[in-house]
Design brief:
The chain is mostly helical. About 60% of the residues lie in helices and about 0% in strands. Belongs to the plant LTP family.
């Protein structure tokens, strides 16, 4: 009888693990965002006269990857942090990129945005 009870407990434990699934991981990372946005750098630093299509693809990709409020806040915080540290970045050009790409990311690309308010 004890063996049957142990078998039942073991089966329940396995079922719980299967139902709960793997632990949640961040859909996006700051390193991934920065890497994706590399095609935007020449434009944002006045080294390219036009916004490359790859930059717009990157913006769209980041928006799609940031599917939860937490993801969007993390992306916002990453972009805010990077924008404030990158020498030669024209913040006016940076803030215009989503609009020029016809992508609404839901928050302004700015060093003064309050990312905790991003939904």
């Amino acid at each position: 009888m004890a063996a049957a009870a142990m078998k039942t407990v073991a089966c329940m434990a396995v079922l719980c693990v299967l139902v709960m699934g793997p632990s949640a991981e961040a859909a996006i990372t700051c390193g991934g965002i920065v890497s994706k946005l590399s095609p935007c750098l020449p434009y944002a630093t006045h080294k390219a006269p036009a916004l490359p299509p790859a930059c717009c693809s990157a913006i769209s990709s980041i928006k799609a990857a940031a599917s939860t409020t937490a993801d969007r806040q993390a992306a916002c915080s990453c972009l805010k942090s990077v924008a404030g540290k990158y020498a030669g970045l024209d913040l006016g050009l940076v803030s215009s990129i989503p609009g020029k790409c016809n992508v609404n990311i839901g928050y302004p690309l700015s060093t003064t945005v309050d990312c905790t308010r991003v939904q």
